Structures are given as C-alpha cells and as structure tokens.
Amino acid sequence: MANPRLFSEGSARYWILLSILAVSTAAILIRSSNSHPLVIAFWRLLIAYVILLPFALRSYKEGFRPSRKDTALMIFTGFVLSVHFASWIWSFQYTKVSSSVLLVTTHPIFVSSVSVLAFKERMHKLAIAGMTLAIFGSVVIVLSDIGMSGHALVGDLLAILGSIMAGTYILAGSRIRKRVSLPVYANVVYGSAFLFLLIAILILGIDFVPGEPVEYIIFAALAIGPMILGHTIYNWALKYISPTFVSVSLLGEPIGSTLLAILFLGELPWAGFYIGAPLALSGIYLVGRYGRRGV
Q1: Could you give the CA distance from residue 142 to residue 146 in angstroms, rounded to a whole number?
Q2: Which of 19, 20, 71, 117 is most buried per CB count within 10 Å?
Q3: Does any domain span residue 4?
Q4: Running DSSP on this structure, what letter comes out for residue 146?
C-alpha cells in the first residue's frame, strides 16, 4: 500500500520538480522523430491513455463517476490539450528548441490574470514579485531570438498558440480536479484529446502508422516521461496547488530542455538565455515558496 505522505499536499511541490525534469525531455524526443507533428501528438496521448486505463477502470468500479457537466468540461479540456500539442510540436519545424519551449511556457501571464480576476485567487506580494521575475527572465531569452528568420516567426506564433492552450488546460484542470479523481480525469481528457487528433489526421489524409520501429520507442518515451511523469503529476498537483504556481513552475521546462538540446543536439541557445535562465529560476522559487492559496 502506498505511503499516504508520499502523495499528499505537503509532497506536491517535490513531485512538481520531478515533473519539470520529465517534461524537459519532450523537446529532444520530438526533435528525434521523423513523424508528422499530429502523429507524434496522437501516439503520445494514445499510449499514455492505454497505460492509465486500468487505473481509470478501477476508479469507475469504485463509484468515482463524473457528472455530465464535468464530463463535458473534460472533453473540452481534451480538445484544448490536443490543440496545445499539435501547435507546439509543429513549432519545432520552424524554430529552435530554446525558443519554442520558452514561448509555450509564457502562459503564467494568462493563468495568473484569470486566477486573480475570475477566480479571486489571492497572491502573496513575494509570489507576485516571483512571477514577474520569472516572466522577465523569459522575456530576456525571447528578445535574444530577434535575429532569427521569418520561418522562426511562424514557429514562435505556433508556440504562443500552444501557450494559450496550455494556460486554458491548467485553469480548466484546476477547477475539475477538485471534484474528479485523477485516473478518471486523465482517462477522459487524454482519451478525448487523442480522438480529436485522430479526426484531424484522417481529415488531412496523414498516415498515422510510422514506418520506422524506432518511432514507437520515441512515442512510448514521450508517453511515459513527459506525459505520465509530467502532465499527469501536474494534474494530480492541481488538487493541492494553485494553478498559478503550477503554471509558473513550468518555466523550468525551457531551461531543462535547452540544456538537453545542448548536450544531445548540439543546439546552442542565444546569449540571452544565460541571463534570463537564472532570473526565471529565481522567480519560480519565490512563487513556490510563497504562492500558497489564501496567503
């Protein structure tokens, strides 16, 4: 039987650190694949869905059944997640890892604004300062990317679309997870997301069966690492931690992804990364330390 302290409110922030490491591997795995962006997103979600399905069935058997309203909201969240993955993974065809992953994690601006204005979430002054510092550090990195080509702009816009969808995904999850168990939530959201992607693949006439066996290894790695150890732990943490903290903590992803891109792809970031990264990490620490609900 699992230790209840291992999966508790007090341990949530430590699990978030593991999630940051897990999602940081997504970029280099995506860059290693030769498949269409929609196909990568489809298989990533499908494999994660299959792995988590037994846990969802157990929850259903134990009586954890969501209401029709929550089911509809989860299907909508699945659609949002499918757009997030499709646009973000597509952005890698046009811009650098450091730029794409950075821009897709600018959603704290959106999340924090909605959380304060719509959900009346109060924030400690130091948490606000940390959020500002983290975003400023990210902007420094973005500005260092100005000299790239017009193709990079397309990638940047796709990453920004992915960011907006990621913010919506986090906010929706923070509402639904208060009422729905994690296995059921992941089952419906991931399941509907891969079905939406399948519809898009069929409409566009894309072959979703890759010819190279190594592609399935990449898909499985994406499902187990960034999806289950990353997204699923984030979804679990949303029950205990404010969506603003979860959103800002994801700013650690561009730092981890850029370092991995240097090591495995030989892709060096622009000079601004070395200035912005420490600022972003400092901001994440402040939000993590003081960004508690009701403080």
Answers
A1: 7
A2: 19
A3: no
A4: T
